[in-house]
Amino acid sequence: MRQLIYILFAFVLLTSCSEYQKVLKQKDIKPKFDLANRFYEEGLKENKNRKLTRAIKLYEQILPTLQGKPQAEIIQFNTANAYYTVGDYLLSGYKFERFTKAYPTSQKAEEAVFKSAESYYHESPRYSLDQIDTKKAINKLQLYINEYPDGQYFDEANEKLQELRFKLEKKYYEIAKQYHHTYRYKAAISDFNNYLVKYPGSAFKEQTYFYRFESAYLLAINSFINLMKDRLETALSYFEDYKERYPEGEFLDQAQDYANDINLRIKKMETNNTEQQ
């Protein structure tokens, strides 16, 4: 029985290949269109990438001839969706985008706008890499949300949008933190300040206030003597910011130790100045 099944499967596969090759070489459009539609529907139903890629090849072969005709709308959407289904998101994003521009009133327009955005979402890399595709995905998802506030995919689009925004937020935070950890304290302070303005509701807000203070403290104590007092006072103001916002914060003990050291240093400097006068 198992051998018979293998034989039948091989026969169906060979027949399908033979039919595909035969139609592919024909000049007539209709057999190609019909077979492409069949492969497309079967590929979606059976989750078969092979059939979807064949549908794509047939569709793209006949599209130039059918431009401006009703079939072109079907071809362009199905091609984009086939690329999307097989996981070629770079092409599906582009194809869906072209479809929405060509057919803005299509019944498939909403799905195309969302899947174009989702294609860029899938192309978004981890936060440590370049985020060009992430920013594209954010713009596309926001476009969908604006155009379809009651849309079928609204909740999913909003969820993905928040996820991508968090990724950018984390990248910005990690860059500032990297400056801190590599002793580039001026750059760290600047980036932490900008971060607090750009992401006032950040999930990393406490860490940002603490590391800004720590950067300022380390910058101050490693400064030339003529710059040290002003920088210590600036660092102390950052400590007050942290303490006011996080009176029971995770880093409060460490921050208080730094603040105590700052006060001792300032007091000593003031005492030395008094004695020299």
UniProtKB/TrEMBL annotation:
Source organism superkingdom: Bacteria
Protein keywords: Cell outer membrane, Membrane, Signal
Residues that span the membrane, as ranges: none
Protein name per UniProt: Outer membrane protein assembly factor BamD
Database matches in Gene3D superfamilies: Tetratricopeptide repeat domain (1.25.40.10)
Domain Outer membrane lipoprotein BamD-like: residue ranges: 36-221
Pfam families: YfiO
InterPro entries xref list: BamD (IPR017689), BamD-like (IPR039565), TPR-like_helical_dom_sf (IPR011990)
Organism: Mesohalobacter halotolerans
